[in-house]
Amino acid sequence: MELNNNVYTIQGLKLTDIAEQFGTPVYVYDADKIAGQVQKLKDGFKGLNVKLKYAAKALTNLSILKLIRKQGCGLDVVSIQEAHLGIRAGFKPSEILFTPNSVAFSEIREAVELGLQINIDNISILEQFGNEYGGTKSCCIRLNPHIMAGGNNKISTGHIDSKFGISVYQMRHIERIVKACNMRINGLHVHTGSDILDPEVFLRGAEIIFESATHFPDLEFIDFGSGFKVAYKDDDITTDLQELGKKLGSAFKAFCKEYGRKLELWFEPGKFIVSESGYFLVRANTLKTTPATVFVGVDSGQNHLIRPMMYGAHHEIVNVSNTSGTKRVYTIVGYICETDTFGWDRQMHEVREGDILAIKNAGAYGFSMASNYNSRLRPAEVMVYKGEAKLIRQRETLDDLLRNQVEIEL
Ligand SMILES: *Cc1c(COP(=O)(O)O)cnc(C)c1O
Predict the structure, then answer these.
(1) Does residue 369 share a domain with residue 250?
(2) Ligand 1: which residues within 6 Å by Cβ?
(3) Is 63 domain-assigned?
(4) Which of 227, 250, 269 lies at the terminal end of a domain, its last residue?
């Protein structure tokens, strides 16, 4: 989104026009930004045998998946349904990594039948996989390196209390199962959490995984998961990809030499690729002055963008209908009947009823976490592609709320 002559635009299109054309609330994604983020990752890890597996759960719209596939990415999926969406968007099953947690073995079997690369994060599943497929199907192992990392408790996954991965301390047990079942382990994986700033965290994970790798002679790739931090505010620091690329790159090259074979280096960025591409446009319905503040009530709520209420996430909010004049302090709230705040104490150009507000960083974990709570309809999604705003998901209707309900005679 750019501000020129007091007008906010995406690829030259005015945000207020997009809101007018498609109505609000609406998620708007800038395809150029998505392509640019993928390019940044490619540049950061230049010269390495890198494969990017976009973490689909951040944003699963089919058109977005197609766009990301066109940038040369594979996919990381956490459910069989995400895998089906990926295949529908044109990804080859072999380009899709299946990283589930707490699923029944039947779902793993389904994924094997689809031809996905399986990532196993549980000793019991590893054993079942070995019993069923032996050496006929290879699989990756998700290790828990027990590193505390990530922006907050809900999104850090590698620490001691985490349910994710198989502990590196269980290596002897893993080895016994792999040997007994004659299994082929073709990848090792760590994903320590989201919003990791410090390249050192990746490097510590790398050291642990490189050491573990010596136990597995059939490796084809090492997957460092994700956690790349993006900017939520103008002055936010983000993961320094150049520094990370350099440090991790040289560590990886040294490891490959020792291992005796050139392996692929995988990453699974979700947020990094789509977060900043997305703007959630809402309309100011009401203004309410209380003894404490001025509330701006908008035509949406935490049912459409839950990150501020769920994670305390900060999303910048701008008034795209009024880009000059006095700045005032507002609290921006939604219409859900419980505490429902998008932003506290925000200085914004004066908000009038009917103004369009843009909530930033709405590409990742925005629509994909939206629900129908309060029987509200989920918003439309629009992608700005090659200078044109295209509808990529219709706004829901009352029929969508009723679709699967079964009314019984009473
Ligand atoms: C959620 C997740 C990701 C993506 O994390 P981001 O912070 O969005 O980049 C990658 N890998 C796995 C296994 C995940 O669960």
Answers:
(1) no
(2) 55, 57-58, 76, 78, 99, 191, 194, 225-228, 268-272, 364
(3) no
(4) 269
Q: Give the CA distances from residue 380 to residues 9, 28, 69, in Å, rounded to whole numbers and listed in that order.
A: 19, 9, 22
Ligand 1 midpoint to CA 267 (Å): 9
DSSP 140-187: EEEEE-----SSSTTTB-SSTT--SSEEGGGHHHHHHHHHHTT-EEEE
Give the residue numbers of the binding site. Answer: 227, 307, 311, 338, 365
Tokens coding 231: 């900017």
* Containing structural domain, residue 228: 99-269
Q: How many CA atoms lie within 13 A of 332 on its CB side?
A: 32
> Among 215, 239, 269, where does a domain finish?
269
- Please tell me the distance between residue 232's alpha carbon and the centre of ligand 1 in angstroms: 18
Same domain, yes or no, for 123 and 230? Answer: yes
Do both 221 and 349 map to the same domain? no
Give the side-chain half-sphere CA count within 13 A for 69: 20
Does residue 122 share a domain with residue 256?
yes
pLDDT in tens, the chain (410 residues): 999 999 999 999 999 999 999 999 999 999 999 999 999 999 999 999 999 999 999 999 999 999 999 999 999 999 999 999 999 999 999 999 999 999 999 999 999 999 999 999 999 999 999 999 999 999 999 999 888 665 555 656 666 677 889 999 999 999 999 999 999 999 999 987 667 777 888 888 899 999 999 999 999 999 999 888 898 888 888 888 888 899 999 999 999 999 999 999 999 999 999 999 999 999 999 999 999 999 999 999 999 999 999 999 999 999 999 999 899 999 999 999 999 999 999 999 999 999 999 999 999 999 999 999 999 999 999 999 999 999 999 999 999 999 999 999 99
Task: Based on the fold, state whether residues 19 and 106 are members of the same structural domain.
Answer: no
How many separate domains does the chain show?
2
Has 337 been annotated as catalytic? yes
Q: How many other C-beta atoms are found inside a 10 Å radius of the C-beta of residue 169?
A: 9
